[in-house]
Amino acid sequence: MRKPxxxxxxxxxxxxxxxxxxxxxxxDAAGKRGITAEDYFAFEFVGDPRxxxxxxxxxxxxxxxxxxxxxxxxxxxxxxxxxxxxPRQFTTSPQSSTSPRWSPDGRTLAFLSSRPADGGGGTAxxxxxxxxxxxxxxxxxxxxxxxSTPGAAATQSAAQTAAPAGAPGAIGTATTPGVPSALAVAxxxxxxxxxxxxxxxxxxxxxxxxxxVTNLKNGVNGFQWSPDGTRLAVTSRTGPSDAKxxxxxxxxxxxxxxxxxxxGWFDDKRSHLWVVDVGTxxxxxxxxxxxWNDSDPRWSPDGTRLAFVSDRTGHAFDESRNTDVWVxxxxxxxxxxxxxxxxxxxxSPRWSPDGKTIAFVGVVRQRDHPKIWLAPAAGGxxxxxxxxxxxxxxxxxxxxxxxxxxxxxxxxxxETHLFRVDVAARKLRQVTQxxxxxxxxxxxxxxxxxxxAANDFKRLDDxxxxxxxxxxxxxxxxxxxxxxxxxxxxEVERLTYKxxxxxxxxxxxxxxxxxxxxxxxxxxLSIHGGPAAMYGxxxxxxxxxxxxxxxxxxxxxxxxxxxYGQKFERGIEGxxxxxxxxxxxxxxxxxxxxxxxxxxDRLGVTGxxxxxxxxxxxxxxxxxxxxxxxxxxxxxxxxxxxTRDGAYGHTPDFGGDLxxxxxxxxERSPLKYARRVRTPILILHSDNxxxxxxxxxxxxxxxxxHFGAPAEFVIFPRENHNLTRTGExxxxxxxxxxxxxxxxxxxxxxxxxxPPDAR
Length: 759
Known about the structure:
Shape: globular
Structural class: alpha+beta
Strand content: 25-35%
Helix content: 10-25%
Strand order of the largest sheet: 1-32-33-35-34-36-37-38-39
């Protein structure tokens, strides 16, 4: 066995262990059991909470899994902010309902659904074919059901967690702004709808039936109420094939960007803005163009203007990242005013309460962390930083307190929390606290309340309401309570150790369920995706399943991870398979030295996306692991760069593109070291993965077999790079069962372990 290069440095590690919570031994309580992969089918996922204008009610989306139909079902629920009565279901259609949005007077909830229409005339609009088109409202046609995906918490997937879309440094992040769409299979059939179309519905709190507000031909992607409640700003897609069905089913492209992992091959449609009259359903398209997408419309406080995001360089589909914030009249008249002023991505426009200023998130240089900027809504002046020295990645930006403060969410050292910026003083303060992940914050200015979802390592998301300063927190939901009562779940402890260059690296350890002094246990190392992502105290079903199988779990945030500042995250530059490898392996050695109950001869490793890359790299550079599972992973940068959706997206990571640094790209490709691999490895991949194409897994499998390594290959049909987050429920569960099968065989030595496809 080759001696790992990191070992000498690891022996001198100074390890600081800081427990997040006391470790709990297995209890003997009757009826308690460890969690299984199949428990996913029973989970309740909460997302998109929205507090009413008077602060009294909270609307949210509750998603469950229909195992028989292999789909997810979402409905909107209402919770009393005072907790005076239990939450109640608000929508009941067999079709999913999502994106609840309160009318300004709080008397109506609008939402998206692909449910059949109510048949009432005068409440829906058809989509016109160009900017300025205004249409009457015929009776809409029936729409089929649509499966909906769980909220943010439900998409977390331990070893396979990838970076959020658009995160700096995210592997394979698409350079195309907006949300492109897959080519419809039935596009060549005139008049045939290829997929359900979500439309806006409105339902009064007084009861009655939901009223369909829109009937845009390609559905609605998102919407926002106008301040006076009479109109909606809507994003929908339109293109030449709406007026004339295509004469051929070939795909014809002129630009570098022509596919996107989440939605597949591009068609000829682009996302644009519409203004819809809530009362009549009359719709007017106010932006157009075939060379860009328009997104995220935001009303000015007086309802006369809209801010939105678009890349109008003409190169949006040729690797441009230069999205900007624009302002236009809400009636579509007049020209556009560019508010932002950076050559990288500017996004998330938010009007100040007085309508004079727009806050937005912007990047100055490629792969820099985004900052929060202020610019005059009238344009013409340079933007300025809200706060100096911000070294976090802000999201979900919102004004509050009459314009005195801006709030945002961010990941920080393995946790996710809400932060507040005092605009006048230009000072930053953390609002929420604790070993948990807080997300989806929504605020009500009048009641000075906010609602958010929060979870930790032992619980999926629940909803909480609190004052804007974080005080007076009250839990509104207790989802999955019956399931939790049946389960024994493990705690997680945090540890800090020294990585390459003496950098501090955060790691996390989970003990096996039923841990006993004096026994030896296997350990599974899990590596997150990205690499611009973050592990921590979030909910990870995989880790609890591993622990229930009797395995310890170790996971870490090596250089490249978010939540530790830009220098740490960009420490990955030129170090794929270098110092990141040392960071991870030093952590493994630190845990082995600290915990003698871990069996050094029964170590496993797994990861997805970038985590899969590093898994592949590890087994080509050390033999200490007895089993490996790699998911949606890169092995050959040479072929990956030309075939994935993000084109040549690794340029900042390697100091140049493929044609400038060809030898380095091959040097850092795990495929080069396939002849060294002796670790039994299971390869899991999806056949529609456009982020890391299937050919990567095929090359890896065949090379390993060619050199005699024990390897098996499993392909998931109909899935993309997001299999373990938003894939078909049965596939998501089966993916986890494949992982445990492999570790049972090689870590537990169970030669009779049965693969999932043979059960």
